[in-house]
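Issue: copy button drops trailing tokens. Both records pasted manually instead:
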Amino acid sequence: MKIALLSDIHANLRALDACMEHAAAQGVQRFAVLGDLVGYGAQPAQVMRRVRELAQGGAIVLKGNHDALAVAPFDQAGTMDAGGAAWTRAQLEPADLDFLAGLPLTVTDGAAFLVHASADAPQRWLYVDSGHRAEASLHAACADTRVRYVFGGHVHQQTLYFRGASQKLLRFEPTAGVTIPVPPHRHWIATVGSVGQPRDGDTDAMYAMFDAARAELTFHRVAYDHLAAAADVRAAGLPEDFAKRLEQGL
């Protein structure tokens, strides 16, 4: 089964639609949304509608830190993120907020462990942004001996680590569109990047496709109208920095 791994949509409907269309062309059979459906972007209600439709069709959906913040925006009163979260909350229906509040932090699906941030403390929203943090997350997830793969988001970049024959964790640099064999005799941990707010200097949206039957992982980049998405942010009256991030991929 091919599963599209989407994370950090951040209320960017244009990017989400582009990734979903791309995944359909790749033969996707299921979706998993790894958190941060909302926050920063201008279309939280529309993104929520799309993701709830996916959930009704059998998609896995996890909670991210910005989803939790939209449910309770005053937990970080005075911060820029909290200001955006208060605006986001006002755009959502009570059913959307209930949906966000009820999302799990982690899901184990066959040999895959799915989490927004880090498996060792998912509620703390730790960034898996180094070999040390990848090791801690992988070790925690693999307490369940069924787990061979850990997939997360949160860092807005695409990374892949695996445990080699020496049991040392090694980093592999993925290339967009190039399929990587990920045999289950090893353990693997990946961050799938951000659909709605890339931060690696490239404005193209990110997601990954995992083919469990063939034990293959492919990271994708998808062009979309990021300038229109930035204009949407400005039209909504959100902070200018949120728009510049989309224009610059930072």
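Record 2 (pasted manually too):
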Amino acid sequence: MARLPQRIVCLSTETVEVIYLLGEEARIAGISGFTTHPPRARKEKPKVSGFSSAKIERILAVEPDLVLAFSDLQGDIARDLIKAGVAVHVFNHRSVDGILAMIETVGRLVGADARALALVAELEQTIATERAAGEARAARLGRRPKVYFEEWNEPLITGIRWVSELIGIAGGEDCFGELSVHPNAKQRILADPAVVIPRAPDLIIGSWCGKHFQPAHVTSRPGWEAIPAVKDGHVVEIKSAILLAPGPAAIREGLPAIGRCLDSLG
């Protein structure tokens, strides 16, 4: 339909991923340089912004009739685009249910409601399957293993809500689940690495946003040799590209990856 947006700029990777999965990628006129899913989008679409910064002129140059943004981190960009007369939709989801709701909304925006609902149903089935596997995993181990998830190392930042929820679905227990409800990364900072030691995680998952995880940097922290995960060699990486964006990949790829990490415990 002519009334649907024809030239969409996506300022974060998850909306690019969804539009491609819905088969509506022809509508995308520009993407963020931090887009990771699908990989071919980086070759096919102009990169017109960063994530938290952008030159408005570059975005306007591709003549968007809709810009999809994410959270307060892109609030200034959204404000400037609105002042320039561009329609902007800002998502603000940070949970598994929020990911599913975002997909449904994107589907409506591009006139692919049925395909969006089908994608959500597929992801819900993945969640159900992984939840059952997680319950079996916990039963086999006789407990829900404690997981320390590290999103950043300088300073230490623990996992955001959807990651914490995925750990729970996979049969684990997020050591710092109480912090995961905070949307702002600054609110999830651990001021002293020593506070991890008494939480005694069985598994440490590193997913440093935008850089390669270094297990040796983790295991060499003072006092951390007493942590079960360190003693038993259960310090692993899950690539941030598949877990730290609130889109389908976090469920399709990140959730099973967490399950495999928990399976390594025995």
